[in-house]
Design a protein that fits this description.
This protein is an all-alpha fold. Helices cover about 75% and strands about 0% of the residues. The protein is built from 7 helices and no strands.
Length: about 170
């Protein structure tokens, strides 16, 4: 698990726009699925730890997408970008903690929420780095809201991959 966060993207920056678009999409999907698996953790006390793990996944996604664009992004810069999107992840943790009182509902909503926030943050990071970091917080929040809507559709299409990871230990493609 530790290697997941300490590793850097092994590819050089991707200059071809279509290749980069595909690579970013596949990367976002892979880590959104991982976030969903951790977001589904049903035990209230321990779910806070898994929620913190989801935040670490999201920091990694932002950092690594920046690298696809040729930017050197450290953890602090990635956290700063995440901080521009007012408390989205903090709100997700609060809601997830409350919902874990009802385990099945808490797990389902925790998975969906972790997937959606990770996907949306990846989309925002992609837009941010494509604009060379020249997007203000209001634009980032607007993009985040739009990406959350998109994430719902992607989540529905990916539910079988998440279920496989939760129940059979199968890995999604990518």
């Amino acid at each position: 698990v530790r290697a997941l966060f300490e590793s850097e993207v092994k590819a050089n920056p991707i200059t071809d726009a279509e290749e980069r678009k595909t690579a970013v999409h596949d990367y976002m999907l892979r880590f959104s699925i991982v976030a969903a698996v951790f977001g589904a953790f049903p035990v209230p006390v321990f779910s806070i730890l898994t929620d913190l793990f989801v935040i670490s996944i999201q920091v990694k996604v932002v950092r690594d997408i920046g690298q696809f664009w040729g930017h050197k992004v450290d953890r602090e810069a990635a956290r700063s970008i995440l901080g521009s999107i007012v408390g989205a992840t903090g709100m997700r943790i609060a809601v997830h903690s409350v919902l874990n009182v009802v385990p099945i509902l808490g797990s389902a909503l925790g998975a969906a929420s972790a997937f959606a926030t990770t996907w949306a943050l990846g989309k925002v990071a992609d837009a941010y780095f494509s604009a060379n970091g020249h997007l203000d917080a209001a634009v980032l929040r607007k993009l985040y809201g739009e990406a959350r809507e998109e994430a719902r559709e992607v989540y529905e299409k990916s539910r079988h991959l998440i279920a496989a990871r939760l129940h059979n230990g199968k890995k999604p493609p990518g």
